[in-house]
Design brief:
Layout (H helix, E strand, L loop, with lengths): L1 E5 L3 H13 L5 E3 L19 E5 L7 H9 L3 E6 L12 E5 L7 H8 L5 H10 L3 H10 L4 H18 L11 H8 L5 H7 L1 H17 L6 E2 L3 E6 L3 H17 L4 E8 L3 E7 L8 H5 L5 E3 L3 E8 L3 H11 L2
Parallel strand pairs: 1-2, 1-3, 3-4, 4-5, 7-8
Antiparallel strand pairs: 6-7, 8-9, 9-11, 10-11
Helix pairs in contact: 1-3, 1-4, 3-4, 4-5, 4-6, 6-9, 6-10, 9-10
């Protein structure tokens, strides 16, 4: 049996979409909200199964991948997050690049030699790789106006992935992928698909709410924002972090969403000027992880907020 296992954000969805446009395959989809990354263990692996994994950390799925390989499955892995040591197994093929200036969709685009580059550009915008997305769009001759449309689409797909649970989202990530897979060209999706308008209206409404939030900490180098326990806040949290870094590229940002008055879901963005340190900070906490430029903590106890602020200041002085 075939399984496609992917992150529910713009990068994961667009990476899979590119791959399946190039290599159509009937596969069972395994995904979830953006922070739901421990996905490989959900696969009921048997001998000769084929697993394609996109945009989730190998390190976070190491045990499940090794178990799948032991059962005789084949695994192909595309990712840009911290991976740790990779096992040597003839049934494991991986395309992993943890550089700060790349995302999984750009890795897939390289492997496909640019065959569906517009979807890779869309994903790069969604993953806050503004410079890389614009340079790639220029290189392949996409106009400035059309590039801006791809940026909007990438942001909206990424926006849809954030939430504590599927019910927070406008579309379950697998359902959104099923809609997107019908469109070879992202401009046709933008022009003809009602889901685009749904996401655009939701995003604009949530953005208006979050822009009224007063930061808990704001200096030349650091900004921390505390969001309330509400679905709109969880949806906009990660995308808002991206917006803040674009507005002040020399500043590191953290956006924290309160859950049940018990813990925060944390999104951290390193300064765009050097895009380093977000993963190092977040991995100091039990449920933290991510990549150099953008990382997060799934459950930061309220009692550890002061400790987080202290470490945040040390990481981004």
């Amino acid at each position: 049996m075939n399984f496609d296992i992917f992150n529910g954000d713009a990068d994961g969805i667009c990476a899979l979409h590119q791959l399946r446009l190039a290599e159509p395959c009937d596969a069972q989809l395994i995904t979830g909200v953006k922070r739901d990354i421990d996905l490989v263990k959900r696969v009921p692996v048997e001998l000769y199964d084929n697993l394609v994994v996109l945009d989730i950390s190998f390190d976070k799925n190491r045990n499940a991948v090794e178990q799948a390989l032991e059962k005789g499955a084949s695994v192909t892995y595309y990712d840009h997050h911290f991976a740790g040591e990779l096992p040597d197994n003839k049934n494991l093929k991986y395309f992993i690049n943890t550089a700060a200036e790349i995302c999984t969709s750009l890795i897939v685009n390289q492997q496909l030699k640019g065959k569906y580059v517009k979807w890779a550009i869309t994903a790069a915008f969604g993953d806050n790789l503004q410079v890389q997305a614009i340079e790639l769009a220029d290189r392949v001759g996409i106009s400035a106006a059309d590039t801006e449309l791809l940026k909007t689409l990438g942001v909206l797909i990424n926006y849809n992935g954030y939430g504590l649970k599927i019910e927070d989202l406008y579309f379950a990530p697998d359902a959104l992928y099923q809609i997107i897979k019908c469109y070879k060209d992202p401009f046709d999706f933008i022009k003809n698909e009602k889901a685009f308008l749904t996401l655009k209206q939701g995003y604009e409404s949530d953005l208006e709410k979050v822009q009224a939030i007063i930061p808990d900490l704001l200096t030349d180098k650091q900004g921390i924002y505390l969001l309330p326990d509400a679905s709109w806040a969880r949806r906009i949290s990660g995308v808002y972090g991206n917006i803040l870094t674009q507005q002040t590229p020399s500043r590191a940002h953290a956006v924290l969403s309160l859950i049940d008055d018990k813990y925060y879901v944390v999104s951290v963005r390193a300064p765009l000027d050097y895009r380093e340190g977000a993963d190092d900070l977040c991995r100091q906490f039990e449920t933290g992880g991510g990549r150099k430029a953008a990382a997060g903590i799934n459950k930061l106890p309220v009692a550890e907020y002061s400790l987080f602020v202290e470490k945040f200041k040390l990481q981004f002085p």
